[in-house]
Every structure is written in structure tokens, then in C-alpha cells.
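Minutes, project check-in
Item: structure for the 71-residue chain
Input as provided by the requester:
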Amino acid sequence: AGAAENCNTVPGKLADDEPDHQELCNREQAFFLKAIHNDIDLTDHVDDAVNSLKIAFACDESVRTGGAVSL
């Protein structure tokens, strides 16, 4: 079964197999350990994380100042 077939069709409800916060943390830690053991380049992942933080900080600044923030 594909991912779309596993999704719940109720609007606003997560997929039946959606991981909770702890499971997401477990998966991230397992992936990081795999990267260490297998010398996997995480440059793209780090770049994505930095960009996500830039967006989050820009959102915060926009809320505080009431203005648009350039990224």
C-alpha cells in the first residue's frame, strides 16, 4: 500500500500512522547515528534546518514589529 492509501481521509486529521513527538525524536536520533556510523554527508539537512530557523526568526520579528521581513 502506498502512503496515500494509508492516510486518513478526514480533513484536519493526521494519518493513522503519523508519529508522535517522541517517535519523531527517536527517528531523528537513529538517522543521526546512522550518519555517524556510515559517514553520511548531512550538509543538505543542516542547510534545511538553518533555513527553517531563518523563516521562524523572520516570522517572530514580523509579529513583533508588525512589518514584513526580507529573507
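Outcome recorded: The first helix runs from residue 3 to 6.
No further action items on this chain.
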